[in-house]
User: Which sequence fits this backbone?
């Protein structure tokens, strides 16, 4: 019933969908050069042979599945199509996808668009990461008897309560998957209760991901820019957190002469506006995208560049993880932890609850309640580098705790992957 209603609304609401997409395009949230992909029109030919399609909504999900893509292409010899929905994730995939893998934008969930997409790509296996489930896409894939597996499935307590209000719809959506693999045993249990045919947990790929990359020459240059000053990093910040970081800097500057605050905004395109706002508030800001030098009087180094967090996590070992004070949900705290950083974050880390628990249980992170508590924790760690280094080492060890998750995932996927290889052999005989 709900699926039929949804399908009807997406058909009748086509003009509203077009208006919505055009507004996103005008705001730079859609890729103008590749916009037809959002309508299911491919910009690349389908590769020959067996194709695995992997959908990951945005940056975090797509980065977490890169090691899986590398194993599928290198060890299994499969072609991989990854779809995402954001401009930033597309840019990162263009930089980091291995040979044998390609990226397209996920089409908007209207039957004509998704049918066009599936008819062109004809995937042999679909892997859906985390929790972005599109009803029309799932229904069209079921109609084509496409095998599907949900990996990294995430089902928060709030989402679980919402899905339980429509149990038959939830069961219909989840029954599309031959197997649902949750990020945690709790996620798997909730998926099972909502109607998943088979649900399990083999670990979390975000815990098992390799360290973010960094180019050695760029790292040496950043270290030269920092000049041995006391420094802390506000990473993946969202609106409001940059001003917060600058205020914290002012609180600490007198106690830590020469202090430098490095800010890496989650959305780099916001950089120039952030710099203007901070400068208007009296802060001395250097903007990385403009090539500005870090001078003796620079207070905030604003690194508004894409894909350089691995660089700054190596250069700055005291890190506050954003989207946890001024916004909610958090960002992945294991990324700085596995590079040996002392990690701090606010109370709003619901999207990464298992990682938060892992780090706090190991004494590898500090959770702060508000701006004042953040300043106090930074003050303590800046004054005691040994304590900060010990936290960082515990974080590095914690980041390796689920290193076997990728192998476990591939083992669970082996019935479908082996089947693809057998089909390829038969096709060639």
Assistant:
């Amino acid at each position: 019933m709900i699926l039929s209603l949804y399908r009807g609304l997406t058909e009748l609401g086509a003009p509203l969908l077009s208006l919505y997409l055009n507004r996103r395009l005008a705001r730079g949230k859609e890729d103008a050069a590749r916009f037809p992909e959002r309508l299911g029109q491919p910009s690349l030919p389908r590769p020959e042979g067996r194709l695995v399609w992997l959908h990951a909504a945005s940056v975090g999900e797509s980065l977490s599945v890169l090691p899986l893509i590398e194993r599928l292409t290198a060890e299994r010899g499969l072609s991989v199509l990854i779809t995402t929905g954001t401009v930033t994730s597309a840019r990162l995939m263009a930089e980091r996808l291995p040979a044998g893998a390609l990226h397209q934008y996920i089409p908007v969930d209207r039957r004509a668009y998704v049918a066009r997409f599936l008819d062109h790509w004809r995937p042999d296996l679909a892997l859906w990461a985390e929790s972005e489930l599109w009803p029309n896409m799932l229904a069209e894939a079921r109609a084509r008897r496409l095998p599907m597996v949900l990996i990294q499935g995430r089902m928060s307590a709030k989402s679980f309560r919402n899905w339980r209000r429509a149990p038959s719809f939830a069961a219909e959506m989840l029954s599309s998957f031959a197997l649902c693999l949750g990020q945690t045993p709790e996620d798997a249990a909730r998926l099972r209760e909502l109607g998943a045919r088979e649900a399990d947990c083999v670990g979390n790929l975000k815990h098992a991901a390799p360290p973010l990359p960094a180019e050695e020459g760029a790292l040496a240059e950043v270290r030269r820019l920092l000049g041995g000053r006391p420094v802390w990093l506000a990473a993946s910040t969202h609106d409001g957190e940059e001003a917060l970081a600058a205020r914290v800097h002012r609180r600490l500057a007198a106690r830590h002469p020469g202090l430098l605050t490095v800010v890496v905004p989650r959305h780099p395109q916001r950089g120039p506006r952030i710099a203007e706002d901070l400068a208007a508030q009296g802060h001395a800001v250097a903007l990385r995208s403009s090539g500005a030098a870090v001078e003796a009087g620079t207070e905030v180094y604003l690194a508004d560049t894409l894909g350089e967090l691995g660089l700054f996590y190596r250069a700055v070992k005291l890190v506050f993880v954003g989207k946890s004070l001024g916004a909610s949900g958090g960002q992945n705290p294991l990324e700085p932890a596995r590079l040996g950083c002392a990690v701090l974050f606010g109370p709003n880390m619901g999207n990464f609850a298992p990682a938060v628990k892992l780090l706090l249980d190991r004494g590898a992170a500090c959770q702060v309640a508000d701006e004042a508590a953040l300043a106090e924790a930074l003050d303590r760690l800046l004054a005691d580098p040994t304590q900060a280094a010990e936290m960082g080492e515990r974080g590095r060890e914690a980041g390796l705790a689920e290193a076997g998750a990728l192998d476990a995932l591939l083992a669970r996927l082996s019935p479908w992957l082996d089947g693809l290889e057998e089909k390829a052999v038969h096709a060639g005989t």
